[in-house]
Amino acid sequence: MTQDWNRFLSVEAKNRHPSVMKTVGGPDIISFGCGMPHSDCFPLKGLSIKYTTPDSNFKKTAIGSNEDDANSKEGASEIYQMCQYMSASGTTYFKKWTHEHIEEFHKPAFRDWDCLIQSGATLSFDQILRMICDPEIDTILAEELTYPCFLESCKPLRLKVFGVKMDADGVDVNDLDMILTNWYEDERTKKYRKPKFYYCMPFGQNPSGITMTIQRKKDLLQICQKHDILVVEDDPYFHLQLDPSAKNVPSLLKFDTDGRVLRIDSFSKMMMPGMRISVVTANNFFVKKLTMMNELSIHSAAAPSQLIVYMLMQEWRQQGFRQWIEYIQANYRRRRDIILDAFDKYLPKSLCSWNKPSSGMFLWIKLRLDKFPKLDRSEDDSEWALELEDLVYDQALKEKIYLTKGHWFMIDDMVMAGFRATYASGEYEDLYEGSRRLGIAIRHVHENLYEK
Amino acid sequence: MTQDWNRFLSVEAKNRHPSVMKTVGGPDIISFGCGMPHSDCFPLKGLSIKYTTPDSNFKKTAIGSNEDDANSKEGASEIYQMCQYMSASGTTYFKKWTHEHIEEFHKPAFRDWDCLIQSGATLSFDQILRMICDPEIDTILAEELTYPCFLESCKPLRLKVFGVKMDADGVDVNDLDMILTNWYEDERTKKYRKPKFYYCMPFGQNPSGITMTIQRKKDLLQICQKHDILVVEDDPYFHLQLDPSAKNVPSLLKFDTDGRVLRIDSFSKMMMPGMRISVVTANNFFVKKLTMMNELSIHSAAAPSQLIVYMLMQEWRQQGFRQWIEYIQANYRRRRDIILDAFDKYLPKSLCSWNKPSSGMFLWIKLRLDKFPKLDRSEDDSEWALELEDLVYDQALKEKIYLTKGHWFMIDDMVMAGFRATYASGEYEDLYEGSRRLGIAIRHVHENLYEK
C-alpha cells in the first residue's frame, strides 16, 4: 500500500518544491547553464591519509596510496582538531586565518564586527533568513533579477520578495528609496510588513553580471540607514574581478559604519565548492546569534575542509594566495573574452544584446523584443516575452546548446526575454561552438515567426 | 553608540538562547561531562595534500609535507568530485557505500527506503523538525530524560515536548499509549495538537545509558502504528554496543514495515565528529523532501569528509571495518568497566545508585533522595531535588570533578536528583581519581545537611 505521507508535513515542507533551475545534459549538448567553476581553477590534485590499521589492532599506521611522492601533514594538534568536535565558530587556526583575510581584503568600518565559518553560502543565507524573518509575515527586497536559490529559500518560509530596479551600476537606489518611503501607501506593498533587509550580490551579480560601483555602494548604505534596514551582501564572486573597473571596488563592509551589513563570503567560486565553506561577517550581535544556530545545526564547516584550505594557505603563503587570485582571474577573463568574441561573431546584434561583465561568471543576453513580431496582438506584453523566451530556449536545446532561462531569475513578471550565459566551465572550442548554435537558434525563431 | 539589534530578530531567533549545557574546564579539573570520543578512537593520524604551486603558475604540483612516508590518493574522479559541487544526496561513491552499510547493518523492512548524507546528527534532527513540525503549533513526544540539544532545537520553534516514562528496557510503551489515547481528554495535553512523532535514542540513551530491548522496539512500533505517528530514531551509539545483551539488538528499521521510522546515523561517535557526517534513512517520500532541504542549505556533507571516510573503508575493507568496530567497543568497554569499578570503590552506595550501560558512553547516577534530610519540609519535592542536585554539583566542582547536571536533561521537573557521567574521554587514572572526588563531594553534602 502506498501511503500519502503529506499529512506529516509542516507548512514549510509543503511549500518546498524542486528547483526551477533545470540542468540539461546529454551527448553533444554544450552548456552555458550552470555556474560551476572550471577544473583548471581547482588547486587540489591529490589527497593522502595516514590511518591506523586493523592488522596492528589500530596501533600502527599506514598510508592510503596511489603515488609515491607524497608526504603526510601530521601537525598533531590540527589532525586531532580535525577528528574531534570543534567550536561552533570554527577551528582555532582557520578562524584566525579567516579573521585576518576579512581584515586584509574588506577592512570593515564598523569596529564591533566578527566572523563565523559556515558550510556554504546557501546555508548561510538560509540561516540569516531564519534569524531575521518571521515566516508568512516578513518581506525582503532584492534586485529585480536575482539568484533563484535565494528566491527558493524564501518560498518555504512564505516570505514575499519585492524587486528593486537595476542599471549598469547596480541597484537603482532611487527606486529603493521610493519603495521604502511609500511602503504603507503603495497598493502593492501596504498590506505587508516593511522589509528588514535588502539582499544583493555586489560583484558579477547573478544573473546580470553587473558589478556595483563604489558610489552606488555608498548611496545604497545611505538609503538603508535612512530607512533603518539591513543589507545582506552575498558575494561569492568578490575574488573574480576581471577588469580594472572592478578591481578597486571594496565590499560594503568598508563603508558600513553602522554595522548593518551582513556579508557572506564563499570559497566555492574562488577555490572549491566541494569544501562547503562560507564565512559570515557582521556585527557581533548577529554573529553570536548565528553561532548559536551553528551549535544546533552544522556545528561548523567540516574540519577536513577547514584544514585543507588552511594547509593550502600555509603552503602558498600570502603572496602565493594573491598569485592564485590573479591566476583564476586570468583564467575567467580569458573565457569571458572568448565568449564575447564568439557572441560578436555569431549572435545577431539586430535581434539581441548582451553586456561585458567586469567580474564574475555570467553575462546576460537580452532579446530585442521589438524585433520579433508579436503573433497575438491582444496578448499581454510580459506573457509574450515569456513565450518568446521559451521559443528560443527550446530551439536552442534542439541545436544542442543549453542556457539558463531569464524568467527563472525574475521576482515578478517583466516585459523582458533573456538568458543567463556562463563562460566559467566551458572549454574554449565549446564557447565558440555553443555561441554559433545559439546564433542559429535565435535567427531560426525570428524567421519562423515571420513566416507565420 | 551601541544599537539594540533585537528589533531585527525573528520570533525564532528571539527564542534562541545559549545552551544550558555548560562545559567546565580548568587546571586539575577532571571532567565526566562532555561526551567527546577518546582520541584513541580516532583512526586518522595524518593528512597530505597535493596542490598546484604559484611558482609554476599553478601548472605543477607539490605536496604539503611533514613526513616522508606518505603516498597520495589521486583517483582523478574522486578528487575532482571533492573539489566540485556535488549532488544534494551526496557524492556517488559515498552514497553507494552508505546504502550498502545501511543494508548490511540495519536491514530495513520497508521496501521503499532511501538514505541521505547530511552534515551531522544535530543538523539532521533540526531539518526533520522543520520538515514535520509547524512552529508554535506542533508537539513532540520523547523520553522523559532526553538529549538537551534536541530540546534546545525545539525551543526556537516553540514546539512543546512531552515526556514519556522509561524503565530499564527503554520507553514505557503503556505510558506512550495512554498519553496518545487520552490526548484530547487530558488537561495537560488537550489544548495542543497531537504529536506527529516520537523521538528516541535506542542505544545507550543520552543521558540514561539505557538500551531498548527487541521486544520493546516491536511494542513501540505497534503503538506508533496504532496512533499513526512517526518515530525519529536518533542513534549515534549504535556501533558502541559493549555487551552481548546489546549486540543482537537491531535498529527499529528492521521491524518497520510501514516506513514510519526516520533513522539518524552518525559518524561522530564511531569514527570522528570533525567529519560532520550523518545519514538519514527513511521512506523515499521524506528522503526526497530532505534532499530538497539539502539543496537549499548544506548541499551535502563536505566532500573531503566523504572522501576521507570512503578512503578508510577502501583501505580497511569490510573485515577491517568490523575489526574497527570491535576495537572501539573494547576501548569503551574497558573505560566503562573502570568507571564501574571506581564507583564501586568510591561512591557511597547508601546515598546514590547507578546503572551499568550495555552500550554508549554514559551512565546515570541517581542520588537517594530519602537519604538526604530535607531542610525545609514545606518545600516542593521537585524543588528540593533540584536544590540537592545543585549542592552536589557545586561541591563536586570544588573537589575539581565536573559532571553534567541531571536537570539539564529533564523535559519537566521531576522528583529526581542525578547526574550523567561519561567514561568516554577520561584517562584510566582520571576515571578513578574523579570517582574518588565525587564520592567525597556526595558524602560532604550529606554530612553538611545533617549538621544544619
TrEMBL record, chains A, B:
Instruction: State the needed cofactors, names only.
Output: pyridoxal 5'-phosphate
Q: Does the keyword Transmembrane helix apply?
A: no
Ranges for domain Aminotransferase class I/classII large come to 117-433
Has UniProt tagged this entry with the keyword Acyltransferase?
no
InterPro entries in the cross-refs: Aminotransferase_I/II_large, Class-I_PLP-dep_aminotransf, PyrdxlP-dep_Trfase, PyrdxlP-dep_Trfase_major
UniProt GO molecular function:
2-aminoadipate transaminase activity; aromatic-amino-acid transaminase activity; pyridoxal phosphate binding
Keywords recorded for this protein, A-Z? Aminotransferase, Pyridoxal phosphate, Transferase
Q: Tell me one GO biological process term.
A: lysine biosynthetic process via aminoadipic acid
Membership in a protein family: Belongs to the class-I pyridoxal-phosphate-dependent aminotransferase family.
Q: What is this protein called?
A: DEBR0S4_13454g1_1
| Organism, as annotated | Dekkera bruxellensis
